[in-house]
């Protein structure tokens, strides 16, 4: 029902043979003509100057009727929301959406669909659907990454090719040795024939498709990374079969034929399949380990079938036609496809002198629709009188197919308004700060282990210290903040890159430590954390950053007395009043 593909820029497959310019426009028109949607991947991180180029790049595709855009970068999301307000925005799996918290934020930002991280369980996916009502799209077949999408820097570090810029070199597919201890003196933990320790098997979810659908998944995504048309056709064909089976017979009548799973392996085999993370957290059986198996003898019968019926076969849409020919009147052809009807008139029908036109000859000529995207599902022909119809006159009626094409496509086409500039007027204090950045620039230190604290504290040049929430014990946080303050340094708590159930439980358990430590602020590394902090009422930083808030009340019990003066100054800096809230009971 829908296709996703990249254009010449800003897509996660920078080295693929992507469609450019008019090719992409034609792809959009082709998809729409055949009743499909086309979603464009604009799912890399952007550089500032690229955001200024984004609107001009997207304008022709928007006007051609592009159905939606899959986005990773929040800046790109904002630009397209303003410039192209009626186009669907989908949150890419590159955004690493791992819970309802970030999904809610993205919905507020204008996204109507979210592609959550592939590591989520059915339970987590179901919660996102139930609490946001958004369209949920998940991967059901194809390649799996070892790391959370959007979080992997391995390709960048090893080869300078960033996965977040669409240039992943897939180093996780290479063979590695796993060593315990020093390489010179330690020992290898993996066998000679088990070196592919980061290469996951391909995903296959036929067996659990009913569970996925019942969890609220609206769209099933097949990963076709650099695959052939034959692979695409074969995989989609099988998943369409089982979607239709489930819809017709429900869970009780659902059964997966082993031969269909074998066909999927014949199309691509990385050492077997895995059902991924839907029902389990992780496991050794998800990893390919061994080198990709030799291709046993190829299934040529399957390949020939797919080539003949999908790859090489021209796709045509059914139309209902009605042709009327009457002496002395123009020939008329009416064409209907779905809810679209067009009518064309041809030459005036002449009287036949000796061989009048027959329905058989007229039908044979009109049925020659090879140069069009249509075929006659039904064609009614009326001949009134002895009609002479030259072949050219019948051929001219095919103009109706061109008009039908344009009328069908016109349903999607739209005109972009004058494009909104990406730059927004910044508040005066921000403009001033950006112009004089060197006047307040300072060094910060990000610490992951306790042994790093003392060197950072003793360095006068370091003005701010970030301590990792996982590397420093919660009952130490308050003490470390005081040590930082004693040295005239700010202290921030660094939250995890991935924020899922176990992280929520950890911070809920240590909420008092977080609230009472007196951190200058927190460093959020996932969208989930921003929403979670607000919802869990770790309130000061979100309240300070909200322009709409003009007065802040701080609870006398929730904020330490030695913090009060500091909090007042923070409020004044943001132009907000600060009140102290006294207890309900005063004894």
Parts with pLDDT < 50 across at least 5 consecutive residues: none
Described by the principal axes of the CA atoms, the overall outline is elongated
Radius of gyration (Å)? 31 Å
DSSP, total strands: 25
Distance between the termini: 68 Å
Q: Report the total helices.
A: 21
Task: Kindly estimate the percentage of residues that lie in beta strands according to DSSP.
Answer: 15-25%
Helix content: 25-40%
How confident overall, as mean pLDDT? 88
The secondary-structure class comes to: alpha/beta
Main pleated sheet: 9 strands, mixed
Oligomeric state as shown: single chain
Question: Can you describe what's shown?
Answer:
By secondary structure, this protein is an alpha/beta fold. It is elongated. The relative contact order is 0.08. The strands form 7 sheets. Strands 1, 2, 3, 4, 5, 6, 10, 11 and 12 form a 9-stranded mixed sheet that branches. The chain is built from 21 helices and 25 strands.
């Amino acid at each position: 029902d829908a296709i996703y593909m990249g254009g010449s820029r800003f897509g996660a497959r920078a080295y693929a043979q992507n469609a450019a310019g008019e090719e992409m426009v034609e792809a959009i028109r082709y998809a729409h003509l055949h009743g499909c949607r086309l979603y464009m991947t604009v799912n890399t991180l952007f550089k500032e100057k690229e955001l200024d180029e984004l609107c001009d790049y997207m304008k022709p595709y928007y006007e051609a009727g592009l159905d939606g855009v899959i986005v990773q970068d929040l800046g790109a999301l904002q630009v397209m929301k303003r410039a192209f307000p009626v186009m669907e925005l989908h949150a890419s799996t590159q955004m690493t959406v791992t819970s309802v918290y970030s999904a809610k934020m993205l919905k507020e930002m204008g996204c109507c669909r979210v592609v959550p991280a592939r590591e989520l369980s059915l339970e987590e996916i179901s919660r996102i659907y139930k609490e946001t009502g958004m369209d949920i799209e998940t991967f059901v077949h194809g390649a799996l990454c070892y790391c959370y999408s959007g979080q992997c820097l391995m390709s960048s570090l090893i080869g300078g090719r960033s996965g977040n810029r669409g240039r992943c070199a897939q180093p996780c597919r290479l063979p590695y040795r796993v060593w315990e201890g020093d390489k010179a003196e330690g020992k290898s933990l993996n066998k000679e024939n088990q070196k592919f320790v980061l290469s996951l098997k391909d995903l296959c979810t036929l067996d659990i498709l009913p569970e996925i659908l019942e969890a609220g998944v609206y769209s099933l995504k097949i990963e076709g990374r650099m695959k052939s048309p034959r692979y695409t056709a074969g995989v989609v064909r099988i998943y369409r079969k089982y979607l239709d089976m489930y819809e017709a017979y429900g869970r009780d009548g659902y059964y997966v034929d082993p031969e269909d799973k074998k066909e999927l392996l014949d199309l691509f085999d990385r050492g077997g399949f895995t059902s991924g993370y839907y029902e389990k957290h992780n496991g050794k059986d998800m990893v390919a380990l061994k080198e990709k198996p030799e291709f046993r003898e190829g299934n040529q019968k399957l390949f020939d079938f797919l080539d003949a019926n999908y790859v090489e076969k021209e796709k045509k849409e059914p139309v209902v036609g009605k042709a009327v020919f009457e002496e002395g009147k123009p020939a008329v052809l009416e064409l209907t496809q779905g809810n679209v009807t067009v009518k064309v008139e041809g030459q005036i029908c002449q009287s036949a002198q000796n061989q009048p036109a027959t329905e058989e000859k007229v039908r044979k000529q009109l049925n020659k629709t090879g140069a069009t995207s249509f075929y006659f599902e039904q064609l009614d022909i009326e001949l009134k009188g002895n009609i002479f119809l030259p072949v050219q006159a019948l051929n001219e009626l095919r103009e109706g197919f061109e008009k039908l094409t344009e009328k069908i496509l016109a349903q999607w086409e739209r005109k972009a308004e004058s494009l909104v500039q990406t730059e927004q007027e910044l508040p005066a204090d921000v403009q001033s700060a950006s112009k004089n950045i060197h006047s307040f620039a300072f060094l910060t230190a990000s610490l992951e282990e306790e042994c790093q604290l003392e060197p950072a504290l003793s360095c006068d040049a370091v003005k701010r210290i970030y301590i990792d929430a996982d590397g420093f014990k919660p009952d130490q946080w308050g003490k470390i903040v005081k040590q930082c303050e004693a040295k005239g340094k700010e202290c921030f708590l660094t939250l995890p890159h991935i924020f899922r159930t176990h992280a929520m439980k950890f911070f809920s358990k240590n909420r008092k430590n977080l609230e009472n430590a007196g951190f200058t602020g927190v460093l959020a590394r996932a969208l989930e954390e921003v929403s979670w902090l607000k919802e869990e009422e770790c309130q000061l930083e979100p309240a300070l950053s909200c322009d709409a808030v003009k007065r802040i009340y701080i609870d006398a019990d929730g904020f330490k007395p030695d913090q009060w003066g500091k909090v007042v100054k923070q409020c004044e800096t943001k132009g907000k009043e600060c009140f102290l809230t006294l207890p309900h009971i005063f004894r």
